[in-house]
């Protein structure tokens, strides 16, 4: 069809000269017919080349160019084989590409035409399968170039326009971010207050379960410095490298009586607490508490006081012997044959010595009473030989045996643990009974002698630590989506495998999703319980928000991420996980929200994770935001439409890099509730 290029400069020169001659002959009225034919042939040949050269580049060809391309090709085909070979090769190649392009564009457009034509109307799309079908069709539509879309039928354009009004499409994508994967020790970076971040709470209102987003949030501050520290309402999680290239996670605290741990499927963070228990090595805890240093300081103080009492009692023995010797010397004076003057002098010296001994005795008694008062102030109850690991096991058993109402309160668990430990440990029982008698009569000598005999070092602070540690162990063991199944397999280590758990002695419990595990740089979410404020369960989004004036007013973006949720069905609770997909249109100030691959998870009696796919709890929703705002709000539904509720979210990070938020849904009867948090990042 197409010839190869061959220059014919000689012929062109000949035709140009012939054209001049033809003009002269014509003016003279004679001959020139062959020259006219050559001239005509030349003009036609040049016309073909010009028509090809004037064609647009292949990627810019629209349906309006199809006629010109066909005409150029037809005229090219009319050329002789010799002339075809004379057409410049780049022109031939351009014509080839143009023909192939319109053929490909027509085929691509025809395929999309057929797919779009098979879709229900926008107001009829309500099932998960139909929405999936729609989004797949729209992805193919959006994959077409602007030029390719000109080959679409007019009806396709109208249909897509109707969908555009009802759905948010990613058809004007913001530039890609290409952020690096965060290190496993990294945490989100922020110094922004969290008071207005999206949250959702499950509460009892007038005897019925309610899902509310207008109550005070639990996490009021999240002060984070990248690669330095995380402060959640005073609990500081440090993430500073002790050595270059060797990042570690340490913990410090501003508040008291709380514990923190990092847990994942491969194991939990370990804290060496040997020194805390007066041992050189061998005792580890998955938790660090806010009062570890206080426990150590108390143990040191109690130990020092017992040493002081030992010193005093030794001094009392020595003083008693001195008093005995002094009295013996006085008794001997009567039998001595000494001059009266010498006898009186000796008697005077021994009397003075006796007074000094008595004075020293009184001082020792006073010092001993002061030391006793210190011991009574510290009230140590447990011996140095306490087996922390065994007490921890007992603590977990005690907590699990409590009623659901009491189980959420560490103080109830503390009382139960102390009672259970005293039943198992005779020394603890004996010392405990002695302290009860002393509380009624501080001068009870027998009770004090019991305590002094055993010299306990640890106060109830060690039991308070055990209780919080036990709660953290239970959280790590009973958070199913970070646990392994019977085959030793993790559910989704690339996204869900990692939590930070914070337990407070007032019953508050916060579990932050590990942002590094999810690949996030700017945000994460937390679920929590807050019994003292009536929160059965809550979710809150936290992070480094996008400034309101930095939210774009044009362009689109697709966000991919994850969600975890609590599904309550007639009082029975299950953890739920799913993948998140959201599409934001910044010109429309609207965002679509869908989840997929919904699974519920539980820990079976053997301690293994069991997961079940529940597609009916996949979600879809739509939210909007106002001008000069960085947060959005809307409605959300379960796939089967049995659940309906509220969707909240916010943009986080530079260039609206991530989104995070919460949602709460329930059925019409109020028997089923689904409350969750989510995070997602754009590419």
UniProtKB/TrEMBL annotation:
<protein>
    <submittedName>
        <fullName>Transferrin binding protein-like solute binding protein</fullName>
    </submittedName>
</protein>
<keyword id="KW-0732">Signal</keyword>
<dbReference type="InterPro" id="IPR011250">
    <property type="entry name" value="OMP/PagP_B-barrel"/>
</dbReference>
<feature type="domain" description="Transferrin-binding protein B C-lobe/N-lobe beta-barrel">
    <location>
        <begin position="551"/>
        <end position="682"/>
    </location>
</feature>
<feature type="coiled-coil region">
    <location>
        <begin position="309"/>
        <end position="374"/>
    </location>
</feature>
<dbReference type="Pfam" id="PF01298">
    <property type="entry name" value="TbpB_B_D"/>
</dbReference>
<dbReference type="InterPro" id="IPR001677">
    <property type="entry name" value="TbpB_B_D"/>
</dbReference>
<keyword id="KW-0175">Coiled coil</keyword>
<feature type="signal peptide">
    <location>
        <begin position="1"/>
        <end position="33"/>
    </location>
</feature>
<dbReference type="GO" id="GO:0009279">
    <property type="term" value="C:cell outer membrane"/>
</dbReference>
């Amino acid at each position: 069809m197409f010839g190869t290029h061959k220059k014919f400069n000689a012929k062109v020169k000949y035709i140009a000269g012939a054209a001049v001659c033809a003009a002269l002959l014509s003016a003279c009225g004679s001959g020139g017919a062959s020259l006219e034919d050559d001239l005509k042939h030349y003009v036609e040949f040049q016309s073909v080349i010009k028509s090809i050269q004037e064609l647009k580049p292949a990627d810019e060809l629209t349906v309006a160019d199809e006629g010109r391309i066909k005409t150029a090709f037809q005229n090219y085909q009319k050329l002789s084989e010799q002339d075809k070979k004379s057409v410049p090769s780049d022109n031939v190649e351009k014509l080839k590409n143009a023909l192939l392009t319109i053929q490909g564009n027509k085929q691509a457009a025809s395929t999309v035409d057929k797919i779009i034509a098979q879709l229900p109307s926008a107001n009829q799309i309500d099932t998960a399968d139909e929405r999936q079908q729609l989004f797949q069709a729209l992805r193919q539509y959006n994959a077409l170039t602007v030029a390719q879309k000109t080959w679409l039928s007019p009806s396709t354009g109208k249909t897509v326009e109707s969908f555009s009004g009802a759905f948010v499409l990613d058809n004007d994508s913001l530039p890609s971010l290409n952020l690096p994967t965060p290190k496993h020790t990294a945490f989100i970076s922020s110094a922004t207050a969290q008071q207005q971040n999206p949250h959702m709470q499950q509460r009892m209102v007038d005897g019925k379960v309610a899902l509310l987003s207008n109550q005070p949030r639990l996490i009021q501050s999240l002060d984070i410095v990248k690669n330095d520290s995380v402060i959640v309402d005073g609990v500081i999680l440090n993430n500073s490298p002790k050595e270059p290239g060797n990042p570690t996670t340490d913990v410090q605290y501003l508040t008291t009586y709380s514990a923190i741990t990092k847990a994942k499927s491969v194991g939990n963070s370990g804290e060496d607490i040997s020194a805390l228990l007066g041992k050189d090595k061998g005792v580890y805890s998955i938790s660090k508490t806010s009062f570890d240093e206080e426990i150590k300081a108390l143990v040191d103080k109690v130990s020092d006081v017992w040493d002081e009492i030992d010193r005093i009692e030794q001094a009392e023995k020595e003083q008693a012997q001195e008093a005995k010797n002094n009295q013996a010397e006085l008794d001997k004076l009567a039998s001595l044959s000494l001059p009266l003057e010498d006898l009186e002098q000796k008697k005077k010296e021994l009397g003075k010595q006796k007074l000094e001994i008595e004075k020293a005795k009184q001082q020792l008694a006073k010092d001993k009473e002061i030391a006793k008062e210190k011991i009574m102030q510290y009230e140590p109850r447990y011996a140095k030989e306490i087996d922390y690991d065994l007490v921890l096991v007992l603590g977990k058993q005690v907590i699990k045996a409590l009623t659901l109402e009491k189980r959420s309160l560490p103080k109830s668990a503390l009382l139960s643990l102390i009672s259970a430990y005293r039943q198992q440990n005779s020394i603890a029982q004996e010392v405990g009974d002695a302290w009860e008698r002393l509380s009624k009569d501080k001068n009870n000598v027998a009770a004090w002698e019991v305590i002094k005999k055993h010299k306990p070092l640890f106060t109830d602070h060690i039991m308070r630590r055990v209780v919080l540690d036990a709660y953290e162990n239970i959280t790590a063991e009973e958070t199913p989506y970070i646990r392994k199944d019977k085959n030793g397999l993790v559910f989704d280590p690339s996204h869900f495998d990692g939590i930070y758990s914070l337990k407070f002695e007032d019953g508050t419990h916060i579990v932050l999703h590990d942002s590094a595990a999810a690949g996030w740089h700017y945000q994460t979410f937390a679920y929590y319980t807050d019994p003292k404020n009536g929160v059965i369960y809550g979710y809150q989004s936290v992070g480094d928000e996008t400034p309101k004036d930095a939210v774009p007013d044009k362009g689109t973006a697709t966000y991919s991420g994850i969600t975890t949720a609590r599904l309550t069905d007639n009082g029975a609770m299950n953890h739920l996980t799913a993948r998140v997909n959201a599409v934001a249109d910044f010109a429309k100030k609207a965002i679509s929200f869908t989840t997929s691959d919904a699974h519920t998870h539980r820990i079976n009696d053997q301690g293994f994770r069991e997961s079940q796919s529940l597609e009916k709890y996949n979600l879809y929703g739509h939210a909007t935001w106002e001008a000069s705002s960085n947060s959005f709000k809307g409605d959300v539904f379960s796939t089967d439409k049995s659940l309906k509720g509220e969707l909240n979210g916010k943009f986080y990070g530079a260039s609206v890099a991530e989104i995070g938020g919460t949602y709460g849904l329930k059925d019409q009867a109020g028997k089923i509730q689904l409350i969750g948090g989510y995070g997602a990042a754009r590419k």
